[in-house]
Amino acid sequence: MTCKNWLAPVLPYLAIWAGLFLFHSAWLALTGFHLAIAFMILFLRPNLPVRILGKSRHPERIPATVLFCAASGIGLYLFWNIFGVAKDLPAQLDQIGLNSTSWPTFIAYFSLVNPLLEEYFWRGMLGDPSKKPVIGDLFFAGYHAMILWDRAHPAFIAFAVIILVSAGWLWRQIAREDDGLLTPVLGHLAADLAILLTIFWMTN
Q: What does the domain layout of the chain look like in residue ranges?
């Protein structure tokens, strides 16, 4: 990664921190995160066409990828108690603006917008052709620890980061082989949607 690419994740990380810990707002954390990503894309001006988001050399792999990624929500549901999810999670979520009224809009926006921006940013602009894990995979996974902080057992947070590093690596390999981001975008969407629906179901 170049020096600019090393610095690129800093602003999105700060946006998540400020939204959650300074303003106590899930919406500010999410929209701030997305605005920070958009700003870094405009600032760095990568030579990467937006149409790469809809490109795939192997569209036949999409259904299996989507199902595999959606299984993350099922796993969260099945192991909810084992993961040590905070007993007061519904109250914590309500404090950051996620309640029965706001959840549907939040889930829709998160699931439809987040995969596009994140895949273009992490696997596109900051992508790496290496077949081995790279620091960018950890950068992608790391900010999730802030989101999970005090909301699950520390061991689960560490486990989640490892899983997300693996997911980042997998989506990067798919993007490399596909020469496009369509499959990672759809897999990411399936994972986000499945996980958020599980959280909504378990806390309402």
A: 3-203
pTM tops 0.90? yes
Half-sphere exposure of 137 (CA within 13 A, CB side): 20
Measured in residues, the chain has a length of 204
Range list of H helices, 179-203: 182-203
* 125-179: pLDDT as tens digits: 999 999 999 999 999 999 999 999 999 999 999 999 999 999 999 999 999 999 9
CA–CA dist 142, 25 (Å, integer): 19
Secondary structure (3-state) at 167:
helix
Calculate the alpha carbon distances from 165 to 94, 101, 102, 195 in Å.
Answer: 29, 32, 29, 17
